[in-house]
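pls design
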């Protein structure tokens, strides 16, 4: 009898790296939030030091990490110059129009739903990366996978929209509230049904091939756990913010770092600045993150000086700025949100698996 060799597990970098930095954050931040659940409810607002770590250190920094993948790479920029030049221009114009027509409330609502789409799609993207090598499966099996990873994020969002929740994405009221609780019940039942079919499908795969795709299962489980706990289990803005930011931002930063490291190792790096390849080494990791943190600090300082005035001690250098009037907010708010809006849009292109003319997937999987 001929024994077929089991396929290798489809890690992106290595088991240790993936489990710690790409798959792991959803688990360890959820565990921390559950462990310190009583602590999180003691604060009406996030402590300033924790806000700095989460928002500047992870959330805004991961937005700017897109620069390493796009505008700092000469070959990438030349290959899709029109995309990289026109996207921020178009988004700035759209932002001004939305703010002028609908005001701040409509603007933040549009941005919130754009962010939600981006967060959902990131989990789907990682899931597809870990599902590579399974393209010979039947179409129904692929559709079950797709349905489940989407429902792992969409069901908590439907629950949020149909129940009174104290949490917010960006600002108070940026999500619609729909008085249809039955909609969450139906979506939850569909979620459960698809999950059951998925388990039987994976069990059948194990029975026939004696193989289970571990990183795919871990990614799916971490997504389902973190979105459920952050949105449904808790009704606390600090808990939601911590889980939402860490489970999303840390894996993205890790992905960019791995890509840059592999690009340098393959001799395909075309950085605009000599020596930038050093940033994608363990020794230079503090500089890799420090540059992102510096950009994040500058952006948040402008926000605090012109708009929010919420962290005056942290942004003391920016307190001499004159708070913006309503007329200036029309221009400044879309401008200050441009980095994250550009990140949302470009992210839909730069990690697209079937993108002709770019070797990004070969680079990412170089060491896997």
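designed seq:
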């Amino acid at each position: 009898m001929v024994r077929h060799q089991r396929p290798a597990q489809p890690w992106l970098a290595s088991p240790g790296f993936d489990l710690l930095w790409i798959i792991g954050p959803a688990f360890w931040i959820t565990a921390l939030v559950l462990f310190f659940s009583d602590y999180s409810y003691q604060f009406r607002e996030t402590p300033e030091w924790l806000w700095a770590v989460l928002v500047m250190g992870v959330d805004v920094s991961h937005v700017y990490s897109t620069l390493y993948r796009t505008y700092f790479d000469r070959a990438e920029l030349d290959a899709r110059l029109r995309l990289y030049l026109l996207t921020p221009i178009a988004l700035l114009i759209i932002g001004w129009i939305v703010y002028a027509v609908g005001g701040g409330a409509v603007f933040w609502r549009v941005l919130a739903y754009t962010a939600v789409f981006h967060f959902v799609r990131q989990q789907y993207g990682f899931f597809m990366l870990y599902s590579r090598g399974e393209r010979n499966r039947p179409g129904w099996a692929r559709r079950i996978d797709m349905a489940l990873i989407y429902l792992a994020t969409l069901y908590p969002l439907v629950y949020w929209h149909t129940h009174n929740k104290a949490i917010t994405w960006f600002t108070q009221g940026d999500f619609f509230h729909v008085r249809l609780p039955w909609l969450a019940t139906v979506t939850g039942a569909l979620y459960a049904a698809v999950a059951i079919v998925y388990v039987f499908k994976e069990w059948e795969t194990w029975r026939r091939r004696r193989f289970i795709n571990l990183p795919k299962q871990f990614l799916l489980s971490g997504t389902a756990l973190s979105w459920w706990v952050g949105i449904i289990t808790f009704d606390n803005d600090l808990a939601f913010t911590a889980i939402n930011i860490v489970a999303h931002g840390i894996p993205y930063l890790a992905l960019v770092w791995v890509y840059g490291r592999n690009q340098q190792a393959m001799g395909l790096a075309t950085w605009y600045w000599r020596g930038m390849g050093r940033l994608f080494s363990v020794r230079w990791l503090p500089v890799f993150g420090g540059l992102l943190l510096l950009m994040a600090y500058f952006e948040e300082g402008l926000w605090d000086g012109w708009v929010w005035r919420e962290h005056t001690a942290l942004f003391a250098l920016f307190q001499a700025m004159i708070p913006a009037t309503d007329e200036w907010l029309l221009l400044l708010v879309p401008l200050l949100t441009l980095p994250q809006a550009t990140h949302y849009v470009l992210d839909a292109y730069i990690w697209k698996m079937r993108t002709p003319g770019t070797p990004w997937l070969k680079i990412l999987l170089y060491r896997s």
